Amino acid sequence: LLLAQCVGETGHVFAFDIQAAAIEATRARLAEHGLLPHVTLIQDGHQHAAQYISQPLRAAVFNFGYLPGGDKTVTTKADSSVRAMQAAAALLAEGGLLTAVVYSGHPAGRAEAAAIEQWAAALPQEQYQVLHYRFTNQRNHPPQLLAIEKRIRKPNR
Question: What is the pLDDT of residues 69-93, one digit of tens each?
Answer without folding.
Answer: 767 777 788 899 999 999 999 999 9
